[in-house]
Structure formats: structure tokens, C-alpha cells
């Protein structure tokens, strides 16, 4: 079996060696650019690890793994246009570095490139991998649309928010694991358990992102602490606070949301204090722990020796403990 | 064998019965909307006709035919954003009726829906249909990028323009025919001849569109005559004129292009007169005839009885003689 480091080395080498035509430059350069910005490569790592649970040949799963990573980066590229984001991983977003038309079209091309790699799946697995990939891709679009719809709403029930992040984030983590399992020769039941594992894990990861934006360690967290607070982003924390605050606390929260930001630090401090008063951090942590546990209930049902499962357990545990 | 009318009835019924979830409405309504605007359904018609050349079961090709039509409509949806077009087939474009974010995301979803139908191709044909579809889709993106690049250039060599429209338009017509042929059981050589036939045909169609914008019959032509002239669109006619005009004619043409449009009718009349003086219409007609001939050189190599080929010949001939 391969270690996490060995798997990530394979993935990074394959991503670096992806080659695109030199022209038209404005179509292909943005694809190379966004791929060069790095990232944890979480999804393809999970695909290869899931494959490795059942087979010693992780190469079996490399093409769908690349397709999934290309698709994920395509969604970042287009989401950044829709969110009018200036930066991605510390660098200019594609629509800022080039322009919006370039970002739209190179994103479209990137989605096609994703399907090209998915299509290189062995014929025996091709129909189910394609069906799962397309179903997942359309769910990710649904999640993004629902997320944008939430921005126009004052209050969002917690279960609606969890369903949104399930679609926008969790299903792709789930599919990454299920597809990897299929490629390694898992049974439908085993692959289904890995899908369930990934779905709960994806929810836990996203809630942890929401939490770290407020309670993360500024030194190690990749983004500025409080960015979501400043931009009024509807995170799980803000939604919990909006739904549980009453009286003067609710009034204060609404005021911070509605008024233009004069002093970002002051706003971050004030809203964090509201979260503290309402115990939002601990409610969020409990929800994360609950998804984490649910993930491992599914994972534990896999009838594989612990020695085969340990690498994946360690990788996921490290991610759950990250402060960045 | 089915007549063109019968084939188009099948296609329209299948497109009308495509059903999408009710929510999120802003993701799926624009897909239903753009499909409801109609159009000739040229590409899926060619797919089924190509299938019908080799098999009496056109149903064999219906899924890839739908996938190709969905993909074509997706490109229109995103191209309209990039071109800042207000109208499409007499109705508001998606980004005008909704907004740009909705147009980007529903377009992304539509591309996934296209792949979903392509993926329903029978397993025996799936790898080559997927490969051809993705190769074609990426070429269409290349064509769109090159087209946008041309807008920034003063002069474009004719061969560069022809290569652009080959990518942007002709390859999808070619792939529609090739894929249909495969689904009907054609040999690789037969399917290849249909690809070549479609490629030349697609070039002829696009040049005819360029020609009809200037010399079409205003009563029957779907758009206003001279629209491309008013907007300085780099059509084959304008490119031919820019490359062949000299002296005072060139100066006059450049003036019409550079000056803001005060009176559109006056501009259309003046530029059309320049085209007349330079004989642009007849050069364009000769080029169309040459592609038409090249198309039928490929088609004639198909060793099929004329009785099987007649429906496709008649359909294509009617399209070539259209004034609309």
C-alpha cells in the first residue's frame, strides 16, 4: 500500500505533466494557471486511497482522479466569477488576471477536459463512473445555485444549509471515494459505504472551514481570520446565530450585517463575541463531531483488515485536526 | 427509412419531453427556456439521418443526438454572455432575462446534461463517441476563443477565418454525422467519410449565413439584413473586403468601420456597395460552392444505394438553397 505522501506525489506529478496546446493562449493558459495554484488535492487523493483499499494498483484510478480534480478546479474558476472574488489561494482569480469572458470559456474547456479524463476509465467501469460523475457534477451546480439563492434570504433553516453544503461540497468528496473503490474492484456495497463515508466527511470538512474562519489559528490558517464575518457570508455559524439570537443580541447582529463595514477588525470582534455569547462555536463543533462519527460508522462497516484502512484513517484524521 | 419530417418530429418530441427538476428554478428554467426557443435542430437531424443510412432503427442514435443538441444550445447560451447579445431567436437571451451568474451556471449544468445523454450511448460505441464528442467540444471552445481574438485584430487572413469557423461550427456538424453513422453500424471508413462530408458542409453553411446577412431576402431571413455590417462583425465578407480593398475604397471601408453608427441603414447601404464594387458576394458564393462540392465528393464515396442516400441529399440541398 502507498502512503499519503506517495499518493500525493503521484497526483502532483500527473497534474504537472498535464499538457495543453499553446494556442489559443487565452483558452488554455488559465487552465494551467489555476492548476498551478496548488491546493490539498483532497479529492484525487481520496480516489487513489479508496482504490488502494481494494487493489495494489492505484494507477487503475488515476484517470478518474484527474478528472475529478479538473472538475473541482473548474467549479472554483466559475464560482470565483459569480462571487466576484479577487483572490484564490493568494493569487489573482482568472477573471481578474484575464477577464470574465476568458474565465467563462476556459472554465467550459476545463469541464470538457475533466470529462476527457473520466472517459479514459476502463470500459467495464465506464458507464457507472460516468453516471456517478455527471450526477455529482449537476448536484454541485445545484448546490452553487442554492448558495447564491441564500444570499438573497434573511434567514435560512439549518437543515437547508446542510443540504446546500451536501450538494456543493460533500457529494464530490463522496463520489471521489466511491469511484476510487469501483476502480479498485470493490463490490457495490463497499463502494456505497465509501460514498456514505465521504458524504458525512465532506459535511464535516465544510463545517470545519466555516468554524476555522472564526476560530482558526491566524498564524497557520490560509486565509485571514474573520473574512466570512466581514463579507456577511452565510456560514453555518452565522445561520445558527441568526436562528438562535433574540432580543438585543439579534438586533446587534442584524446591525453588524446591515451596516457598511467601516472597521473590519471591530466587526470581526463584535460578531465573534455574539457567537461566543450564543455558544455557536460549541454547537458547530458538536455538529462536526456528529458527522465525523457518522462517517466512521459507515467506514467501520467495511470488512477490510485495519492494516489496509489505516492510511485512509490517518489521512482523514489529520485533515479533521487541521488548523489551516 | 424515415423522411426528414418524421425525423424532426422524433427529435422535437424528445426535446419537449426532456424534464428537469423544478428547483433550483434559476438553474433549470433557463435550460428549458433556451430549448423552447426552437431552431432547425440541424445537428440531431443529421445524427439520426446518418444512423438511418446504415440502420432502420434511428432510435439507436437518439441519445447522442440529444446530447449534441444540448451541447449546441449550451454554447449559444454562453456565447451570448461573451458577445453581450440581447436577443436570441427573437427572445431575450438568458443573461438578459435572468442575469449573468444564472447564465453561467445554467450553461455549466447544460453541458453536464449534454454529457449525460452522450453517456447513454451503447457501451460498444461509448469510448469512441465520448472521445469524438469531447474532442469536438474542445475544438468549439477553441473556435470561440479565436473568434474573440479576431475582434481585436484589424485584418485576418482568409485561411485563418476559415479555420476559425471550421472549429467553431463545422466540426460539430461533422461529429453529428460521424456519431450517427457509428450508431447505425457504419464502418470506420464510412463514418470518416461522413465526418468529412459534414466538415465541408458546416463551412458552407456558415459562409452562407455570412452571405445571407447582406444578400438575403429581408422578408424571409430570420434576422435583420445588415446586422453584421452594423456591428462590424468579422464575417467572411468583411474579411475578404478588408484584404482586397485598396486606395479610396479601403479608406471608405475603414471609415465606416471606425466611425460610430449614426444611421444604420446608410451604413448598410454604403458597405454593401463596397462589397458590390469588389465583387465580394460572388467570391463568397464561389467559396460556398467549392465547399458544397467538396462535401459531396466525400459523400459520393459512400458505397450505399442512392435510394438510401436521397433523404439526406434532399435535406442538405434544401438547407443550401435557403434564403432564411
TrEMBL record, chains A, B:
<dbReference type="Pfam" id="PF00348">
    <property type="entry name" value="polyprenyl_synt"/>
</dbReference>
<keyword id="KW-0479">Metal-binding</keyword>
<dbReference type="GO" id="GO:0004161">
    <property type="term" value="F:dimethylallyltranstransferase activity"/>
</dbReference>
<protein>
    <submittedName>
        <fullName>Geranylgeranyl diphosphate synthase type II</fullName>
        <ecNumber>2.5.1.1</ecNumber>
        <ecNumber>2.5.1.10</ecNumber>
        <ecNumber>2.5.1.29</ecNumber>
    </submittedName>
</protein>
<dbReference type="InterPro" id="IPR008949">
    <property type="entry name" value="Isoprenoid_synthase_dom_sf"/>
</dbReference>
<dbReference type="GO" id="GO:0004337">
    <property type="term" value="F:(2E,6E)-farnesyl diphosphate synthase activity"/>
</dbReference>
<dbReference type="InterPro" id="IPR033749">
    <property type="entry name" value="Polyprenyl_synt_CS"/>
</dbReference>
<keyword id="KW-0808">Transferase</keyword>
<keyword id="KW-0460">Magnesium</keyword>
<dbReference type="InterPro" id="IPR000092">
    <property type="entry name" value="Polyprenyl_synt"/>
</dbReference>
<dbReference type="GO" id="GO:0008299">
    <property type="term" value="P:isoprenoid biosynthetic process"/>
</dbReference>
<comment type="similarity">
    <text>Belongs to the FPP/GGPP synthase family.</text>
</comment>
<dbReference type="GO" id="GO:0004311">
    <property type="term" value="F:geranylgeranyl diphosphate synthase activity"/>
</dbReference>
<dbReference type="GO" id="GO:0046872">
    <property type="term" value="F:metal ion binding"/>
</dbReference>
Amino acid at each position: 500500500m502507498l502512503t499519503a505522501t506517495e499518493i500525493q506525489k503521484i497526483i502532483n506529478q500527473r497534474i504537472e505533466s498535464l499538457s495543453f496546446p499553446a494556442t489559443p493562449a487565452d483558452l488554455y493558459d488559465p487552465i494551467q494557471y489555476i492548476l498551478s495554484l496548488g491546493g490539498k488535492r483532497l479529492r484525487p487523493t481520496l480516489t487513489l486511497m479508496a482504490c488502494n483499499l481494494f487493489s495494489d494498483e492505484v494507477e487503475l484510478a488515476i484517470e478518474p482522479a484527474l478528472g475529478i480534480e479538473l472538475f473541482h478546479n473548474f467549479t472554483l474558476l466559475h464560482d470565483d466569477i459569480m462571487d466576484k472574488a479577487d483572490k484564490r489561494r493568494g493569487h489573482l482569480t482568472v477573471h481578474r488576471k484575464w477577464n470574465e469572458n476568458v474565465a467563462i470559456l476556459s472554465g467550459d474547456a476545463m469541464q470538457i477536459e475533466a470529462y476527457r479524463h473520466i472517459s479514459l476509465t476502463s470500459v467495464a467501469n465506464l458507464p457507472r463512473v460516468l453516471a456517478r460523475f455527471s450526477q455529482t457534477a449537476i448536484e454541485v451546480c445545484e448546490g452553487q445555485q442554492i448558495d447564491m439563492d441564500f444570499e438573497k434570504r434573511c434567514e435560512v433553516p439549518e437543515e437547508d444549509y446542510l443540504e446546500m453544503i451536501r450538494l456543493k461540497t460533500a457529494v464530490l468528496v463522496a463520489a471521489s471515494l466511491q469511484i476510487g473503490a469501483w476502480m479498485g474492484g470493490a463490490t457495490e456495497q463497499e463502494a456505497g459505504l465509501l460514498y456514505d463515508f465521504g458524504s458525512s466527511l465532506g459535511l464535516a470538512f465544510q463545517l470545519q472551514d466555516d468554524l476555522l474562519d472564526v476560530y482558526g489559528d491566524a498564524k497557520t490558517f490560509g486565509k485571514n481570520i474573520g473574512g466570512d464575518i466581514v463579507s456577511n457570508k452565510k456560514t453555518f455559524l452565522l445561520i445558527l446565530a441568526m436562528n438562535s439570537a433574540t432580543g438585543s443580541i439579534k438586533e446587534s447582529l442584524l446591525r453588524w450585517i446591515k451596516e457598511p463595514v467601516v472597521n473590519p477588525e471591530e466587526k470581526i470582534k463584535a460578531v465573534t463575541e455574539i457567537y461566543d455569547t450564543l455558544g455557536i462555536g460549541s454547537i458547530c463543533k458538536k455538529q462536526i463531531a456528529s458527522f465525523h462519527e457518522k462517517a466512521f460508522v459507515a467506514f467501520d462497516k467495511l470488512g477490510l483488515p485495519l492494516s489496509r484502512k489505516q492510511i485512509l484513517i490517518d489521512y482523514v484524521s489529520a485533515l479533521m485536526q487541521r488548523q489551516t
